[in-house]
Specification:
Blueprint lengths: L3 H14 L3 H8 L1 H9 L11 H6 L9 H12 L3 H32 L10 H25 L11 H5 L1 H18 L7 H17 L3 H13 L5 H4 L7 E2 L2 H4 L4 E2 L6 E2 L3 H25 L2 H7 L25 H4 L2 E2 H6 L8 H19 L2
Antiparallel strand pairs: 1-4, 2-3
Helix pairs in contact: 1-2, 1-3, 1-6, 1-7, 1-14, 3-6, 5-6, 5-9, 5-14, 6-7, 6-14, 14-15
Length: 364
């Protein structure tokens, strides 16, 4: 992933910028769009997390297989209302593909590889997972702040919970086509529904500042034993780490090449990519030209952003320090004068020094 709120914001921004008819139709079915935009990750919260790894291309599977099958289902649907909702779900699914393909290489450059074969111990895996959760949670915070949103005025996933009939129909739609695309001879819908419920609950619970604060203190007290739990909590009282917002480039976790892009560049690329994918889907729905769709939507691994790769190919990584990803308390940050005006490299280095000093003085 990025986390759910980033995916929802990217999907909404794609529709907002487009003047094409499909954008208006999808916006009219926003709950279906948003459900599609987060469904890649739902199995991660179920007993069968590998089903999520599979659709991300982690095992080398075609990442387009499910969406092509869903689009065929949409083309065959006779009920206009259901057709529109299925279509919005599929479009949301495509925006997830675009956002993951663009953002995940940066996230993994920060977190490192989580798979056992790239770690010498379970502790190494857990550290990578904690860094990954911190990174993606901070991306959520960044996009919410950029849009002027708060947890009080931005609750886009509520309708998924409340629209029970539509949610069940779309769950069946997704799971049936997942099974068909990957030739799975069992019903995966119960795992998906269970995962989605946990996913939405986790998204809600991790907004709780009191619980998050208690867990952070316990994590400090136990020398990081709760890092996997605390790393997914939003922190309203902390500054977003500079390494998450002010980077100018990063090392690609698979190729080892330096990618000269900042956070705004990645955002614009994800929006452009998602728009391209939806246009290709719209064309496929109209013409049935599968080859044109497959040409426009390449079979990229959603974790690496590179074709013909697997999750285990993430090896060219120098992960960030976990402490730096925790963020500095805003009061301490502001008391130290915030970030003075200076060139970006010096600004980031000065911030790192203040962050390190702050961590040492507070034992965090």
């Amino acid at each position: 992933m990025p986390r759910d709120l980033t995916h929802v914001i990217i999907a909404d921004e794609i529709l907002k910028r487009s003047k094409e008819p499909w954008a208006k139709r999808a916006a009219h079915n926003a709950a279906a769009l948003h459900m599609g935009a987060i469904s890649h990750d739902s199995f991660l919260y179920s007993p069968t997390a590998k089903l999520s790894t599979k659709i991300h291309g982690g095992f080398g599977d075609d990442t387009r297989a499910v969406v092509v099958t869903m689009l065929d289902d949409v083309r065959a649907e006779k009920n206009a209302e259901i057709k529109a909702k299925k279509q919005a779900f599929a479009f949301g699914y495509l925006t997830h593909m675009a956002a993951d393909t663009v953002f995940h290489p940066f996230v993994y450059s920060v977190s490192g590889s989580q798979v056992p074969e790239n770690n010498t111990s379970k502790e190494g895996e857990d550290m990578a997972k904690a860094r990954h959760r911190y990174a993606e949670t901070w991306l959520d915070v960044h996009f919410m702040q950029e849009k002027g949103l708060t947890f009080n005025n931005f609750r886009p996933l509520r309708k998924i919970v409340h629209n029970i009939g539509d949610s069940r129909m779309l769950a069946d739609f997704f799971c049936k086509n997942y099974e068909k695309a990957y030739h799975i001879n069992r019903d995966v819908s119960s795992d998906y529904r269970r995962g989605m419920l946990v996913q939405l609950a986790v998204g809600k619970v991790t907004q709780n500042q009191t619980v998050g604060g208690i867990l952070r203190r316990l994590d400090d007290y136990t020398d990081g034993k709760l890092k996997l739990a605390v790393s997914g909590f939003y922190q309203n009282d902390r500054q977003i780490p500079a390494l998450m917002e002010s980077f100018k480039s990063f090392k690609h976790p698979v190729t080892g090449e330096i990618v000269h892009k900042n956070l705004n560049d990645l955002t614009e690329e994800a929006i452009a990519c998602g728009t391209k994918y939806i246009r290709a889907a719209e064309n496929y729905l109209s013409t049935g030209d599968r080859q044109a769709f497959l040409k426009a939507v390449p079979n990229k691994n959603l974790d690496t952003g590179v074709e013909n790769t697997k999750l285990a190919d993430i090896k060219q990584v120098e992960p960030a320090d976990l402490q730096a990803l925790k963020g500095v308390k805003l009061k301490a940050f502001l008391a130290e004068g915030g970030v003075r005006k200076m060139h970006s490299g010096a600004k980031n280095e000065a911030l790192r020094r203040r962050m390190n000093a702050s961590f040492k003085s507070r034992g965090r």
